[in-house]
Amino acid sequence: RATQDRVALGAPLADIYVPSWVTAQEEYLAVARMAEQDQQLASLLDAAAQRMRQAGMSPAQIQRVVRSGSPQPRFTLSAPLGGVVTELMVNEGATVMPGMALLRLQGTSTVWAEGQVPESQAAQLQPGTQVSATSPAAPGKTFTGGLQALLPSVDPTTRTIKARLELANPQGRLVPGMFVQLRFTNPSANKVLLLPSDAVIHTGQRSVVMLAEGNGRFSPVEVRTGREAGDITEILQGLQVGQ
């Protein structure tokens, strides 16, 4: 009856009265009564059933007429999926025409989430990469899914790339506008050397770490950095574990 109403799979949405069906059904039922007395009218019965099909009735609707022996001028439009009504173009008592949109139903069994991925980590991600998500709106619940696409643009302020992810949402707990925290899984990840980011000095042309040599002495060591997350930076070259 209103937008944002939730409906279940198979739930009745509207009863539609179709005047043009009445004539075809009454003709069929009249022929059926005569065919009970005269078997030679069987071919006319098939033709009357064909006219119901031509009027737009489905086989299931025709069977209801045959079983009940009475006209069925209304049919119930049922929800083809569970979800939320996002648009409602008609109200009760309205006249509708063939091909006219009555309502729009948005499924919620899967949802899209948009994440911000640091550009230094984007190269490690591929479509299909598995992801898990949590939301303050569903404490203790974990949603699973996968990376659908990395969008081809970088936010110049945060230096992040927008990722579009598809999450399973079987109970409809996630709704548009919610915040989620995403964690990518990388089962093939190798062990790497990590340093606090503030220990790495970026000069513009190179990255340097001050290495303690003992007796209060320090020497600069040039390093090659990799991914950065939060306050931790990956060291690809220039240092060994224990230095």
Question: Which terms would index this structure?
Answer:
five-stranded antiparallel β-sheet, 18% helix, single chain, alpha+beta, 243 residues
A few lines on this structure:
This protein has helices at residues 19-35, 42-54, 59-68, 119-122; strands at residues 6-7, 12-17, 74-78, 83-88, 103-107, 110-118, 130-134, 143-155, 160-168, 181-184, 193-196, 200-202, 207-214, 217-229, 232-237. It has 243 residues and is an alpha+beta fold.
In words, what does this structure look like?
This protein is an alpha+beta fold. It contains four helices and 15 strands. It has helices at residues 19-35, 42-54, 59-68, 119-122; strands spanning 6-7, 12-17, 74-78, 83-88, 103-107, 110-118, 130-134, 143-155, 160-168, 181-184, 193-196, 200-202, 207-214, 217-229, 232-237. It has a five-stranded antiparallel β-sheet with strand order 6-9-8-7-10. A hairpin with an 8-residue loop joins strand 7 (130-134) and strand 8. Helix 1 (19-35) runs antiparallel to helix 2 (42-54). The longest helix has 17 residues, at 19-35. The radius of gyration is 33 Å and the shape is rod-shaped. The chain starts with 5 loop residues before the first strand and ends in a 6-residue tail after the last strand. 10% of the residues are buried. The model has no long low-confidence stretch (mean pLDDT 88).
Uncertain runs: none
**Tally of DSSP helical segments:** 4
Task: Tell me what portion of residues adopts beta-strand conformation.
Answer: 35-45%
The helical percent reads 10-25%
Overall spatial form: rod-shaped
How far is it from the N-terminal to the C-terminal residue, by CA? 69 Å
- Let me know the average pLDDT: 88
Order of helices and strands: EEHHHEEEEHEEEEEEEEE
Number of strands: 15
Radius of gyration: 33 Å
- Give the strand order of the largest sheet, numbering strands 1, 2, ... along the chain: 6-9-8-7-10
Task: Summarize the biggest pleated sheet.
Answer: 5 strands, antiparallel
Q: What quaternary form is this?
A: single chain
Q: How does the helix and strand content classify structurally? A: alpha+beta
